[in-house]
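Hey, quick one: can you model this chain's 3D structure?
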Amino acid sequence: MTESRQNVAFPLSIATSSLNPFPAKSEPPYDLVSKLRAISQAKFQAIELAFPDFLSFAQQHFGRKVDDHDWDNLCIAAKEVRGHCKELRLHIMMLQPFSNFEGWKTDTEEWVKKREDAFERAEGWIRIMEELGTDMLQVGSTDSPNIKNDKNYLALDLAQLADMLAEHNMRLAYENWCWATAAPTWREVYDLVVATDRPNIGLCLDTFQTAAGEWGDPTTESGRLEGISQSELEGKFQKSLESLSSTIPPDRIYLLQVSDAYKPPKPLYPEPDDSGMRPRGRWSGAFRPMPGKPGGYLPIVEVAKAVKGTGFKGWFSIEVFDSGPTGEGRHLGDMGAEAEEIMRLSRKFVEQVQQS
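Sure thing. Here's the predicted structure for all 356 residues.
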């Protein structure tokens, strides 16, 4: 019997960036429309539209380079994407990732310009969201070192963005990036969400970001946090997850992103690279497979069970960045088969989470 889109306990979504070859320069990127077809055929209900995929689509649509601030033409392209998704019965659940928004200092002209650009980008992305027909913007906790790391200051920026979105009946899904400057954990992003005191801001929780930040460490031989015993680490992590389940109201969780991690074949250098990216950020961008893939080792089922324990019944959304266990790259092969395999593993993961 053909499986329907509704026969799993949680609605399933996938980020379009999950169907990318790694490293990206190893082969031509897959076009967005082909990704959408594969995602639809695999019976996902929705997508997270990754902005790089959208920008690539816009450039293909116009047959020329399109600047990422060319709002008029990006809006035209957004209408086209919306049409493709409607035809394929895919809901555009969210536009992502909106980064380095909150907390810019105003001490120098350079930082003032960065702050002005952040708000200009927000206005432009809202225009794009209107044309896409999506009501949710994912904002990753900023990893810029040049921010004012003050809870009230950060919350004011986020509240202003939430107000901008509210004018269009839109929501802000705030995610802790585990290498972030100010809010790398679920508790810190939740505290900021509460501090904004806005009804249209909630959480984008993530199995990788929580487990990788509070349990894993790509700079150690063991691949986990060191300096304490493993039993102490397990106990501390379990207490954090119990706190998550008892602290966060389910309606404050807009989605749960799902991925695992490979332990790098050798520890990553602990300092930022030439681009300024911290080791957990480098780990996140290339070593994140689907749950159930050989080599994945983070306690992600426990994270998902803790989220389920809040009473959450919303989106489980797949976001993987899989360059293979060695990090040397991976040929994606047939995109349709890849999407089908991701769906199979997604259903298996949901079954594991449902088990008591």
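One thing worth noting: Residues 109-132 form the longest helix (24 residues).
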